[in-house]
Amino acid sequence: MALPRLLRTASFRLSALYAVVFGAFVLALGSIALWSTRSVIEEQLTRRIETEMALLDQEFRSNGLDRLVAVIQQRTRSEPNLDYDYFLADPAGNRLAGNLPVTNQLGWNEISAREDASEDQSGKLERVRVLVRQLGDGLRVGVGEDLEQVDELEETFLRVLASALGIVLVLGIGGGLLLSAGFLRRLDAITRTADAIIAGDLSRRIERTGSGDFDHLAGTLNTMLDRIAGLIENVRQVSSDIAHDLRTPLSRLRQDLEEAKEKDLTATDYRKVVERAVGDADLLLDTFSALLRIAQIEAGTRRSAFRVVDLSEVMRTLADAYAPPAEESGRPLRTEIADAIRITGDRELLSLLFANLVENALHHTAPGTTISLRLAREEIGVIAEVADTGAGIPEEERTKVFQRFYRLERSRTTPGSGLGLSTVAAIVVLHQASIELLDNKPGLRVAVRFPSG
Hints:
Layout: H1 3-7, H2 10-77, E1 84-89, E2 95-98, E3 107-114, E4 125-134, E5 140-146, H3 148-198, H4 213-245, H5 247-262, H6 267-299, E6 307-310, H7 311-328, E7 333-337, E8 342-345, H8 347-363, E9 371-378, E10 381-388, H9 420-430, E11 434-439, E12 444-451
Parallel strand pairs: 7-9
Antiparallel strand pairs: 1-2, 1-5, 3-4, 4-5, 6-8, 9-10, 10-12, 11-12
């Protein structure tokens, strides 16, 4: 995988940015730690030197110059592990004792000295912090301690800080490269799948690898592709069904018109031909209107009109409208509708849904059949049922009746286009509900379950 492509990915840039930010934090924290530790050590060094200076001053005041010279010489020669350096100078600046160069500046000084206490150039130079004070009779005494410990601490801190900073940058940039490589591999897999689908292979899907977020994205895209493939297949099926099912009325319409053109018909015969032609044209118009309505519902544009709907009122209104014609046809309508059941949806489409189910029951059952409407609450939602005691639908055909233009063999002689249950299915999907065809023993029971809302 090309390195420039890895470097251009958002994941690498984000990882590099985090690495730089973390590196800056490491640098800032290390600097603060170094400054704090160095301050503490220098403060301790200052107190030690001041304590030693106080002891020498007390020795001079108590026992005089000779004793002070002896003490400094003893500590310089016999106690080399004390870490202190000294000088004792007369008013003329001549060193009387000690191993430090004489300085005339009182107070705190930082000087360079040879660590072997000689005046030649063979010893290594070291930095010494010196406190110089004036004694009686113009004498000056200096007590110092080399800063090697401080310098070593600073060098150690800087090495550790540089190592930590390097590790952060290496891990950050390396992790960014690895993350980008994995990201690009998954992206390439998605791209290959998309290219295959564009080329016409609608069966291709994005492979899942157990990588969490990408798998979730792959699942969502695969669901979308399933939906698209289903819609395309649906369009193909609809095109085929339209060509098949509309051929008959169109052929009949043309035959009637051809007959009227070729034969010398009476006015009564012409009227009959026109009436049949109008009937066929109405059937064609109703079919196309149903198809357009289904397409509009499946497009989801009606979802923007969703409101809280009193489903109890919708079904009672429907029952009041269909009860008289149902009674006249010998198919009494019974209701069992719970009060104040509300869902979120489109009132017009919900009315159309249950109207289609009731009309199916009226048109495809024999006189003497009882039709019932039921609406009730369930633990996880609402159930609405339209049932009849007619012949029912064979179990193997219950999923097919939702296909456009599909009709049972016994229903082909009855009026209709075979789009009623297709419309019902589209409305159910739009409302995120579910529909099930069940055996009513005898007859058919259509159960529609709505989510709570």
